[in-house]
């Protein structure tokens, strides 16, 4: 019997995660759940955003269903205690180096997309983002220059093994789709990107059936709003992937629609909506639960070997959206709970 750790976190995290759990329970797959505090919610009670008792729950679990972390009340804390450190810590603790972020436009959401309907309708891509390297994990610091100016720095760094393993995830993903991989970097300016490009080209030799292309990140950002239908699988680093996937989300209707998976070398993955804790709408029963519910479907598919149940969730979300169920971010007025009910009705 699989054990799911529910790490709901802060802001709208608990609201949307509760609905994802309800959907999983309705499928009657014999899953068991254990909840643990994370982020600001954990700092409040345990003095740390990722306390040992939460890590122990995550350790025991077969998969982690994560909500969101981030709470403006704790913005002033020193970095190690800030809520956001919890997700970085979980990625590091379980070696979750590969982030899969599928973006597609659900039928009926053309009007919610920031793009023209005929352009928006063509969006169906996966962003494969590296998750445990780059400026997020390089040396950081603040200081003073010789001239007495305040200074800050974050080191962008990758080694060849880190690039090769995420490149393989990109190629494997492309093999399951249209066998086209686009590697996005900034190799005209950055040493890390030149290494990235060299290694991706080497790994490509293992995948002769996949057509590999390269694009600079600035051009990719432009192309993504011009014609996202040209993209299938995008492989990119941690920082570029963070930005491009938020951008892709708006093309697909709302940040409240996009799920993600963080995977490593073992079957244990962490599944979370790509949105954050949304403090501006927290506690108002307004958040769109679709991203969290679709994240639960990714969990069934990637960690629990339940692809059929995952398809049922995807179809239920698509059906509810097609029939007009809408939370505020999609231009409607349904509450979080009512939106989830519309999905449960179609399971
Ligand atoms: P993070 O740093 O954790 O990525 P963020 O600062 O990017 O967080 P989000 O919390 O993702 O911000 O919120 C960005 C905007 O999107 C906010 O206005 C928020 O209300 C909205 N938003 C995010 N998630 C949802 C959701 N599930 N439903 C409706 N609106 C949402
Ligand atoms: Mg964000």
Q: Tell me the total number of β-strands.
A: 12
C-alpha termini separation: 22 Å
How much helix, percentage-wise, in residues? 25-40%
Question: What composes the largest sheet?
Answer: 10 strands, mixed
Average pLDDT:
96
N-to-C series of helices and strands: EHEHHEHEHEEEHEHEHEHEEHHH
- Proportion of residues in β-strands: 15-25%
Q: Rough shape?
A: globular
Radius of gyration: 20 Å
Strand order of the largest sheet: 2-1-3-12-11-4-5-10-8-9
- Work out the helix count: 12
Stretches where pLDDT is under 50 for at least 5 consecutive residues are: none
Strand-helix topology:
Blueprint lengths: L2 E7 L3 H14 L5 E4 L4 H7 L5 H9 L2 E6 L16 H9 L4 E7 L12 H4 L3 E7 L9 E5 L5 E5 L5 H17 L3 E6 L5 H14 L6 E6 H10 L6 E4 L1 H14 L7 E5 L6 E4 L16 H13 L4 H16 L13 H10 L2
Parallel strand pairs: 1-2, 1-3, 3-12, 5-10, 8-9, 8-10
Antiparallel strand pairs: 4-5, 4-11, 6-7, 11-12
The chain binds adenosine-5'-triphosphate and magnesium ion.
């Amino acid at each position: 019997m699989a054990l799911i750790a529910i790490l709901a976190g802060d802001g709208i995290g608990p609201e949307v995660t509760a609905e994802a759990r309800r959907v999983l329970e309705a499928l009657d797959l014999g899953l068991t759940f254990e909840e643990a505090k994370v982020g600001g919610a954990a700092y409040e009670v345990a003095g740390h955003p990722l306390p040992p008792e939460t890590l122990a729950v995550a350790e025991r679990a077969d998969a982690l269903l994560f909500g969101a972390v981030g709470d403006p009340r704790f913005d002033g804390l020193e970095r190690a205690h800030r809520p956001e450190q919890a997700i970085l810590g979980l990625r590091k603790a379980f070696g979750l180096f590969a982030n899969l972020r599928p973006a597609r436009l659900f039928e009926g959401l053309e009007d919610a997309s920031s793009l023209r309907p005929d352009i928006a309708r063509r969006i169906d891509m996966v962003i494969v983002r590296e998750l445990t390297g780059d400026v997020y994990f390089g040396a950081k610091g603040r200081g003073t220059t010789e001239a007495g100016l305040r200074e800050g720095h974050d080191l962008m760094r990758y080694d060849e093994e880190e690039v090769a393993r995420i490149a393989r995830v990109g190629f494997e993903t492309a093999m399951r789709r249209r066998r086209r991989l686009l590697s996005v970097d900034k190799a005209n300016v950055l040493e890390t990107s030149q290494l990235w490009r060299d290694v991706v080209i080497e790994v490509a030799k293992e995948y002769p059936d996949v057509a590999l292309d390269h694009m600079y990140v600035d051009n990719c950002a432009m192309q993504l709003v011009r014609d996202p239908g040209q993209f299938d699988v995008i492989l990119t680093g941690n920082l570029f992937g963070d930005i491009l996937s938020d951008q892709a989300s708006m093309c697909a209707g709302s940040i409240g629609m996009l799920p993600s998976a963080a995977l490593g070398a073992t079957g244990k993955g962490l599944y979370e909506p790509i949105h954050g804790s949304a403090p501006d709408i927290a506690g108002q029963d307004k958040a769109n639960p679709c991203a969290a519910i679709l994240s639960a479907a990714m969990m069934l598919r990637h960690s629990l070997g339940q692809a059929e149940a995952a398809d049922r969730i995807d179809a239920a979300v698509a059906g509810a959206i097609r029939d007009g169920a809408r939370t505020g971010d999609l231009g409607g007025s349904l509450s979080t709970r009512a939106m989830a009910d519309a999905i449960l009705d179609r399971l």
